[in-house]
Amino acid sequence: MIHGIHHTAISTPDLERAVAFYRDLFGAEVVSEFEWPVGADFADAILGLKGTSARVTMLKLGNAMIEIFQYLTPEPRAGDPNRPVCDHGITHLCLDVTDVNAEYERLVAAGMTFHCPPQDLGASWATYGRDPDGNVIELQEIVDPSSPTYLALP
């Protein structure tokens, strides 16, 4: 039986920078840190790769977790920090916020880049921004929790 989403995982070339971004700007709490060396057969099996090693930090943010990996081996290919959200793959991580305009202003002042200011979508207000690696983060403020499209979390 599937219970729901536990975490999303992000790969980064700079673990400290990524953790600082989610911890300091979004208030995520570091709940665990671990690593594995080359030769960890369990990791290679799960990942479908050979010769893996990595450093990992698990962060708790509200009702979910964000797991951040810095792979040491094999050498990762660089991501495109401007990858269009229409390309295949995970398109964004959405965070529910109160007062999306205030959060937008706070994050812009902290150096986060956004595609645009928050937009009125009727049942919600939303905008997309990017973390230091170019991963897209949606800030969403639900203004009509009864809308079937934007059901608010408990």
Describe the structure.
The protein is 19% helix and 35% strand. The chain has 154 residues and is α+β, with helices and mostly antiparallel strands. It folds into two domains: 67 residues, 2,3-Dihydroxybiphenyl 1,2-Dioxygenase, domain 1 (Roll); 50 residues, 2,3-Dihydroxybiphenyl 1,2-Dioxygenase, domain 1. Strands 5, 6, 7, 8 and 9 form a five-stranded mixed β-sheet that branches. The chain has a four-stranded mixed β-sheet with strand order 1-4-3-2, with helices on one face. The longest helix has 12 residues. The chain starts with 6 loop residues before the first strand and ends in a 12-residue tail after the last strand.
Total helices: the number is 3
Distance between the termini: 21 Å
CATH homologous superfamily designation of the largest domain: 2,3-Dihydroxybiphenyl 1,2-Dioxygenase, domain 1
Proportion in helices: 10-25%
- Mean pLDDT over all positions: 90
